[in-house]
Amino acid sequence: MSFRKTLKPVAVALGMLFATAPLAALADSLSVKIGFAAPLTGANAGYGKDLEYGVRLALDEANAQQIKIGGKVAHFDLVSEDDQADPRIGVQAAQKLVDQNVSVVVGHFNSGTTIPASRVYETAGIPMIDPAATNPVITGQGFANTFMVISTDAQNAGNAGIYAVEVTKAKRIAILDDRTAFGQGEADEFEKAVKAHGGNLVTHEFTSNQAVDFRTQLTKIKAADADLLFFGGLDTQAASVAKQMKQLGLKAQLVGGGGVMDPEFIKLAGDAADGAMAWEYGRPLAQLPGGKDFSQKFKKQFGVDILSYAPFGYDAAWAAIKAMEAAKSPVPATYRPALKSISFDGVTGHIAFDSNGALKNAASTLYQVKGGTWVPIVTKGGS
Asked: What dotted CATH number matches 27-151+286-352?
């Protein structure tokens, strides 16, 4: 028998082996679509990208670990939609994710966008894990598919109101909010807490989330002789409020809610930032067991520091992954019970949900700008 005749069947056999190997590998793998929605363009895009990076980091780690779901190695693919922080577009983004057959959605960022989008996911039977929006209405709707890995405004702004009365001992408290579902929501919760604990509210002023000039409202607040001002809104506007307070000679203690405690506020407010306070969701990342490691991995992979909510996006993604792994299925109806009973230590703290999908034992922390940096003062709640 010639060498050529011997080689031919061997080559055919090898060809068949390599041809079938990819098919076998494909049969043993499982593609899982993870939806994500947040503002990726516009004024809130920085928050959106920060969240998206957190989710992406979780998926990259899960893919590297070759996690098995139902005996198959899962590959998690991120499907992102830009909701532009607009409720109408948010609903459209939600429907696009539903139409793409995602197994879960991590999102959104703004409460005003999250609330209507949650109804789309509820109708479709797809779990939404909220990493940033904080209005209590979100988990107060009684939906089976809504979950939060972050504390609500009732918890965070409620703590702010109690602290203003009982610790800061403010005698004449004022509020200014941006009239969004988020800003108004946290301002209302702050007001409830102040009044419930015997505090004196002298005025509640309003603006819009597009405004840049707050001197009319601040002049009224100054005339009311307020010694503490709670601002319900995000970092950019809070920085302008701080600068205009200084220009007007308004000496009241500025206290922000969520979305204020970040480097952008200090950068924009300049020397007016010093002494400002803000209540932020969760515990200080640096004080958590995995916080330092997460920060380093994040910076190494994306080349930027964490802005604010990336760790919550990371934990939201892992909550879904762990539930699918436990249920041995990425099908929402199958893994939803596992998600409802999930319990694990995330980078932001312990993750477990109450009967409404809200985070159990949620924490919030008061920070103050000292020497050009945010310094944690006290943490309330958590476990």
From this structure: 3.40.50.2300
Q: Where are the domains of the chain?
A: 27-151+286-352, 154-281+365-381
How would you classify the pairing of strands 363-370 and 373-381?
antiparallel
pTM of the model: 0.86
CB atoms within 10 A of CB 132: 30
- Angle 111-124/181-196 helices, nearest 10 degrees? 110
Among candidate residues 134, 71, 73, 123, the one with its CA nearest the CA of residue 97: 123
Tens of pLDDT along the chain (383 residues) come to 443 444 455 444 445 544 444 544 455 899 999 999 999 999 899 999 999 999 999 999 999 999 999 999 999 999 999 999 999 999 999 999 999 999 999 999 999 999 999 999 999 999 999 999 999 999 999 999 999 999 999 999 999 999 999 999 999 999 999 999 999 999 999 999 999 999 999 999 999 999 999 999 999 999 999 999 999 999 999 999 999 999 999 999 999 999 999 999 999 999 999 999 999 999 999 999 999 999 999 999 999 999 989 999 999 999 999 999 999 999 999 999 999 999 999 999 999 999 999 999 999 999 999 999 999 999 998 76
Answer for the pair 118, 100: CB distance below 8 angstroms, yes or no: no
